[in-house]
Amino acid sequence: MEIGDDTIHPILHVGNVPFSEEGNQTYIKNVLHVPTIMKNLVSVAQIVEQGTQIRFNDGGCFIEKESRIIPRG
User: Fold this and answer.
1) Do the Cβ atoms of 26 and 16 come closer than 8 Å?
2) What angle do CA 41, 44, 49 make, to 5 degrees?
3) How confident is the model at residue 14 (pLDDT cuts 50, 70, 90)?
């Protein structure tokens, strides 16, 4: 995987990450495990392609699927 500073980092695993809130569970699919990157990065475009919506406001970041808020950050 190449990132913005032109460095290349190995992808060690690809998997699905479960998220649940108030008993509702969903997955963000095809999440890359890149241990040499010290910060968590989220591809908004990839999440939206999976049928979810993402909202940002002064209360934080909200991921919605089927009109339900799943994780919140």
Assistant:
1) no
2) 130
3) very high
Measured between alpha carbons, how far is 2 from 72 in angstroms, rounded to an integer? 28
Q: Token digits for 64?
A: 């919605």
Please state, in angstroms and rounded to a whole number, the distance separating the CA atoms of residues 66 and 25.
Answer: 12
Beta bridge partners of 68: 65
**Residue 35 to residue 38: CA distance in whole angstroms:** 7
DSSP strand pairing (24-33 vs 53-57): unpaired
Each residue's pLDDT tens digit, 15-54: 998 877 667 677 888 889 999 998 888 788 888 888 888 8
Pairwise CA distance, residues 31 & 62, whole Å: 18
CA distances from 21 to 29, 37, 39 (A): 17, 27, 23
